[in-house]
Amino acid sequence: MGFFGFRKKVGLALGSGGTRGFAHIGAIKALQAHNIPIDYIAGCSAGAIVGGAFAVESDLSKLESFIETLPYMEMIKSFSDINLRDGIIKGDRFLSLLKNLVGELNIDDCNVPFTAVAAEKESGDAVLISNGSLADAMRASSSIPILFSPFKHKELGELVDGGVMQQVPVDIVKDMGADIVIAVNLSESDVPYNKKSNVAVMQNYMNLILKGLARANCKAADVVIEPAFQSRDWISNFQQRAAVITAGYNAMSEKIPMIKKLL
Fold first, then answer.
1. Cα–chain center distance at 31
2. How many CB atoms lie within 10 A of CB 23?
3. The model's pTM
4. Mean pLDDT highest for which of 15-29, 70-84, 135-149?
5. What is the mean pLDDT of the chain?
6. CA distances from 171 to 48, 99, 161, 210 (A)
7. Rounded distance, CA 121 to CA 100, Å?
8. Could you list the active site residues?
């Protein structure tokens, strides 16, 4: 607590990471369990989805219920609108899934100031979405190149996953007004892979690139959370989502004493 009862503002930078993003749920739950305020949120990709869902009502119960009751085949169905032109998946069904979660709300309707980070399709420049449709912002920020078609935003043009330039949007949430920035980095955990598989080897090289980018992004953070995972496989992490959530909770819980000292 600061002088005269004023406290420092806490910002949460939620990184990208596919289904490892379930860990963001656990990280936020740990903060809430210890009455740590969350005043600003910036998220990339999976971080934008979890961060946006929380920012609406400062509550995760709807998101948790949504995830727990979402059948595996329903998730697969949301990725089944094949496109094959500028991305394997068109993404309209995924957008519908997000609208089932947050409805037609705008970012201005959120209880917590929120920014989703996307990137311009051609230049890769970061594009910050802090107003307009919340579902659209989530979809744009999670438009993984090659997998998803770029999201055609009405005002901002064609956008792809913000993680191509900002794995963990630390600087962005700091610019929003945060005095203390807590970064949740999903790219640090080393996971065994099949070294005899060319696909797995290439995936590991990509993971190393993303790890380096995430580390660079996190240098300006006051606290960095790095959950430990057993797998990088999207399907495995979806099937084991309770364990992934717990990984985020445990990683954040370890840093609670440090966070309280900074407040």
1. 16
2. 35
3. 0.89
4. 15-29
5. 87
6. 15, 28, 17, 17
7. 27
8. 45, 161
